[in-house]
Specification:
With about 80 residues, the chain is an alpha+beta fold. It has three helices and four strands, in the order βαβαββα. It has a four-stranded mixed sheet with strand order 2-1-3-4, with helices on both faces. The longest helix has 12 residues. The protein is globular and about 35 Å long. The chain starts with a strand and ends with a helix.
Length: about 80
């Protein structure tokens, strides 16, 4: 089953830049949602997870949605899903 992603981030977060740098280096394109400039993104993250911590990767598989925090977990997950070694 295919997956779609959204990365919840801010421009002030070094861990967000770590994830974005990894994605850039490996040609992985994921829509970005800035919780500082997009009130709807902030509300969605808070309502779904009870947290406003970024980076957070929203993973959607059919009707299932998973939220993943921690930059290194996100990088490892994306590397596995996209065959990056």
């Amino acid at each position: 089953m295919s997956e779609s992603y959204q990365l919840f981030k801010t421009d002030l977060c070094g861990f967000c830049y770590r994830v974005r740098g990894f994605m850039d280096d490996h040609g992985i394109e994921v829509p970005l949602r800035d919780v500082n400039s997009d009130a709807e993104a902030f509300r969605e993250l808070l309502q779904a997870t009870g947290r406003t911590t970024v980076p957070c990767l929203r993973i959607e598989r059919g009707d299932e949605v998973q939220w993943m925090f921690e930059s290194m977990d996100i990088i490892r997950y994306l590397a596995t899903q996209h065959g990056v070694h």
